[in-house]
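debug: dumping io for the single-chain case to check the tokenizer round-trip. Nothing else runs in this session.
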Amino acid sequence: ENLLTKQEISLVNQAVGLRITELCAGGDNLFKNDGLLLEELVDLKTELESYRNRISDIYAKAGYLCHIEVDGQSVSNAAQKMKWFLSGAVIRPQPEGPFYVLTAGHLHDSKRTITKVTVQFDFGKSSQEGEVWGYDKNYDVMLLKFKDPNFVYSGPIATFGDMESMPVGTEVIALGSPNRIPFNLTVGYIGNKIMDSPATRQLIFHDATINPGNSGGPLLNNKGEIVGINVMVKFNPISNAFTPMPIAVSIKSIVEIIGELERGNKN
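debug: decoded output
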């Protein structure tokens, strides 16, 4: 389907503005051409509504999106209580297998001990206690499992998309909990894709706004499929006055190790 991206909408708006200027410059000829202008504006309105509805529809179907609250304490001082927040997505790698919450690996930190993980989903209508199941620190990826053995998840699950079919400049959607604001959405574009070492993971640089709390949140394509998870924001080493650069780990790299994480490997 030929729907407009934000950049295309901006260009169309400029084109329509120029068209109006041309018609107005025509003086007496303006009203001879207003039928054509009206037709152009109606077509534009239809495309803008289609774009807006597509983004809204993707968000409405994202009941798999998770807001994760972690309670813990300092390893060096047990009396020092800690609380931090991440994002995630409910997935089911195997059709008949268990459900997991895919999130960022840096939830685990050797300087702190996790005492409780609370996972909210279905846009905050439901929550369950989770537990760390498997993680890979080099890839910065983790799987959580629902702790209650009697709990049966019945909500939507996230699906994986094809990162290879998305060139630089493709639109992406970031979901997560920036600054403790759960279930948030922003839109941007892929700026670059690089292979990172030593983990040899593929990283996606993009400009969909993310903040602390977005870590582990899904990065989606325009079909609502996960093409990466947000893990960090890169700041300019000289001055924080420059716009930070959001970075996600590509789903291509996650798929390579997800079998190990399902087996409970902790690397």
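debug: round-trip ok. The first strand starts at residue 65 and ends at 74.
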